[in-house]
Amino acid sequence: MIAALARNELRRLFVQPLAWVLLATVLGVLAYFFLLTLDACLALLPRIAGMADAPGVTDLVVLPVLRAIASLLLVVVPLLGMRAIAGEHQSGSLPLLLAAGIGDAQIVLGKFGGLFTFLALLVALALLLPLSLEIGATLDLGRIAVAAGGLILFAAALAGIAVAASTYAQNPVLAAMIAVVLNLLLWMADAGARYQGVSSSFINYLALPTHLEPFLHGIASTIDIVYFVLVTAVALTLAAHRLRSLRMRG
Amino acid sequence: MPESPLLRLSEVSRVLAGRVVVAGLNLSVEHGSVLGLLGVNGAGKSTTLRMIAGVLCPSAGQVLIGGKDLSEYPETARTKLGFLPERVPLYAELRVDEYLAFCARLHGLSGAAPAKAASTTIERCALGDVRRRLLGNLSKGYQQRVGIAQAIVHDPALIVLDEPASGLDPLQAAGIRALIAELRSSGHAVILSTHLLPDVQACCDRVAILHGGRLRHDGPTHALTGTGTLRVRVQAALDAEAWTALKSVRRADRADAFWRVELAAGAGPAQLAHEIIGRGWALLELRREEPSLEQTFLRIASTDDAREAA
Q1: What confidence tens digit (pLDDT) does each residue in B103-144 have?
Q2: For residue B14, which residues of chain A lie inside 8 Å, CB to CB?
Q3: B91 touching A (Cβ < 8 Å)
C-alpha cells in the first residue's frame, strides 16, 4: 500500500505543471551555471597547467555544479512537497487516506516515497550536465558517484522535512514556507560558529553543509550517513505523529 | 447464538473545541441493513460518521466494526468499510479509472484485482461514459457518483455515505437509491446520512435521529411511515360521527375545508376510498398528510429548540 501511495503521488506530480516547471527551471539554471563555470575553467586551466597538485575539471566544474544542485534543492523540495498532506487538506481528499486500511506511518512513507523518487530523478538528470564532460575530459567518477549518493541522502532529508511541514500546515503555501525556513536554518545553523573559526562543535554537527561537503569531496563517512538518515527519520516520525493527532483533535 | 452486529457504537462521545458534539451515542448496524441517520445541521451526523470511518477518534466510548475495536485494530477494522465524506475526496488531475484503481489498492487489493474492481464499479455506478475523463472536468453529479464508487470499489461490508445525493438531479438521486437497494440485497450494510426524508423512507430499514449530539430516536422505518393521517375532502356535508361509522376510520377531525382522518388498525387508504365512494359522498381529494417521519423529526428538533430557548 505504501508503494501504491508512492506511485500515485509520483503520477500526480507528473500530471501537474508545477513539477515540470520546477524541473525545467532547475535544469535551465544549472545548465547556465554549468556553462559559466566551464568557461571560467577553460580560461584558468592553461595558467595552472604546470602547477603541482593543480585542481582538475572535477574540482573546477563538477564540484560547483554539485553545490548549486544542493542550493536549488533547498527551495525546490519544499515547493514539490508542499501539497503532500496540506494539499489533501485543502482539496478535502484527506479523509480518503485516513479512512483507508492504511496506517498513519504508511501514509507518510507513501507520500515521502513519491516525492523522493521524483527528487532522485531530478538529481540524476542534473548530474548528466557535469557527467557530459567525460566526453572530452577525464573525471573522477568514483568521487562523483559518492557525491551523487550524498545529494540523494540530502534530498531525502529535505523531502522528509517538506512532508513533515505539509502535515503541520493546512495550506500548501504555508507548508512550503515552513519547510524553506527549516531548510535555511539547518543550512546556516553553524554560519556564526564558522565565522568565528569553530568547526567541530555541536552546532556544526547540526548544519546540513557539515555533512554534505565530505560527500561532495568524495568522502562517505558513517557519521554523515547517520545524520541524513536521522533527519529524515525524525521528520517522518513527526509527520506520522501529526497525522495521528489530526485524528485525535479533529 | 445471535450474530453480532457489523457495527456497534457504545457510549461514543466526541468533544471538539471544548463543545460536546456527540454525547453517549449507542448504535448498531446489522449485516445487510440500511440505517438512515437524520438530524438538523450541527446535530452531530458528520462527526458520528467520521468516527465510524476512523477519520476522527472518539473522545470516549468504543467503535466496533466486525467485532474489531477501531482504536485497537484501526487498519484491520477500516478495511471493512467504505466512506463517502460530505465533501467528495477526489484528485482532480486523475482519470476516473485510475482514481478508482488507486482507491482499490489503498484498501489492500493488489495485482490485477484493482483494475478489475475499478472496472466492475464503473459499470455498477454507470460511469462508463466518463471512465477516461479527468475528475476535475466532471459535473457535480458525476463527481458524486465517483465518490460513491470509491466507497464501494473494494466491496466493503459496511458503507458509510454522508449526503450521497447532494447536488444530484432527481433522476441521479433515484439511481443512488437503486444502488443502495442493490447493496443491501447483496448483503452490505449501509449508513446513510441525508436531509432528504423521502430517501430515508425509500431506502432505510431503520432510522436514527440525532439532535444536539444525542440519539433522540432509533427504530424501524416502517414504524414511522404508513401510519400517518390522511387529508380527505368530500362534497357531502358530514360530521365526525359519519366518518367514525366507517370501518376504516378510527378518528376524524375537521380542518377548514377538509377532514383529517386517522385510519383504523390494518386499514389502508384504498379501503377508505372504497367506503367513501360506496356511500356516495363524492370523493374530491385523498392524500397522506405530512409523513410521520417528518413529524417525528420536526417534533424532536422543535422540542429541543424550545428547551434551548428556555
Answers
A1: 999 998 988 999 999 999 999 888 999 999 999 999 888 899
A2: 250
A3: yes
Number of domains present in the structure of chain A? 1
Domains present along chain B, CATH in parentheses:
7-218 (3.40.50.300), 230-290 (3.30.70)
Does A23 have pLDDT greater than 70?
yes
Indicate yes or no: CB of B94 within 8 angstroms of CB of A11.
yes
Q: Is B55 on the interface with A (CB under 8 A)?
A: yes
- pTM, two decimal places: 0.83
Full domain range(s) for residue A104: 2-249
In angstroms, the CA A238 to CA B73 distance is 22
